[in-house]
Amino acid sequence: MRTHTHQEFEAELRNLKDRLLAMGGRCEQMIGTAVRAFEDRDEALANEVMEADREMNEDERAVDDLAVRILALRQPVGRDLRFAVAAVKASTDLERIGDEAVNIAERAIEMTPADRLSPPGAKLPEMAKRAGAMLQEALNALVEEDPEKARGVFDQDDAVDDIYSEVLTMCLDYMKDDPARIADGMRICNCAKYLERIADHATNIAEMVVFLVEGVDVRHGHA
Amino acid sequence: MSDTKKANVDHASGVKMETREVNVFYADNHAIKNVDLDILDRSVTALIGPSGCGKSTYLRALNRMNDTIYSARVEGRILLDGEDIYGSGVDPVEVRRRVGMVFQKSNPFPKSVFDNVAFGLQIGGEKDKDLIAERVEESLKGAALWDEVKDRLQASALGLSGGQQQRLCIARCLAVWPEVILMDEPASALDPIATAKIEELIRELREQYTIVIVTHSMQQAARVSDYTAFFYMGELIEYGATDRMFTRPARKRTEEYISGRFG
Question: B22 vs B37, B60, B109, B234, B262, CA distance in Å?
Fold first, then answer.
């Protein structure tokens, strides 16, 4: 695809994409930090996540402002229009990923200090790794505008859902064995849910990449 | 390529005009190349493309306006309700009555508002003054101009504003009961409010008429048309429902043009 005759418009589109990717990068970091805060019961790391979330909220507003500005002033069509729409939707997903990371950080602080993680809790880093990898893959698909790479993300979502079910079962056993563990058990369940939601948001972003490139809506099982 | 051109076009409304392998030459210049296009009844079809792409030439072929250009030659078939408008024995004046035209620059005659609209009927031999007066009123109403001029029908048309003059030309076209209206950049010389009135009028007229409009404004094509045809260097590159053409054009060249990526 050639560049725009209006170089300023071209620069605005590039700026929009860069800001989205910067949000994505921040999200990846937040997930990693939140899970480390959980593993190590590290309050300082948890606070870092909360601080990053405030910047994330500003990023979301900036991306949406820029996209609305492009829609109003440039009246984009075709792929440019799809990109502006996809950017608004993806910024919402990224901001929510940030919120989920904050939720994990909050649960991390509430957890009872322990020498080592419980069996279900020990599954969370693996889940976080997979969800983070999905997000990374979705963002790479966005950078490269590669719908096949984006479709690869959809398949990984099932694996995360499977681990989520496994963690829930493990949590039930963990809590049944000792009612004193119920509070922490519930926190682990919640964290697993947050990670599962992060994977869903990464999937949404991948769906937006397919929409952006191919103009087809693949959400909710539509081919 | 023909699949792309036919894609996503709902033919339920019926075909008013068909062009088959149409080629137009100006002396040795091959201005239109093998254009196959169906123009659907009671809909607005926009012709878009960069300057010199042939869209105005194609438009003018639809009512034999190119006949008046000595070096112009039209090949292929252009059918109006299934009948070839270039067929032997077809009266070009009757073709232009059925397929009217509105130009970029409004061109009222230096006569009264009334006489401008009555002109087509009068040169067509209509003598019944009541019928003419009735038709003038209907046409001015049809062109959304009646309320603004009903008290000054005998005033000179040249005293009207640019937007009013353009609507007067549309009324003049409507007076002779056309079926198709061709518009060559009808709002390009008008301010945004006058443009909006013309665009609104186009949407109303499509209830009764088939409209083909040439426009350089992508936004105007998107706002007023049901179908869009993209021309480039004399060829029809892509044709389809306007909402698809502006959100998911099938061809790269269309995408580049509508999104402003032309060199």
Answer: 9, 12, 33, 10, 26
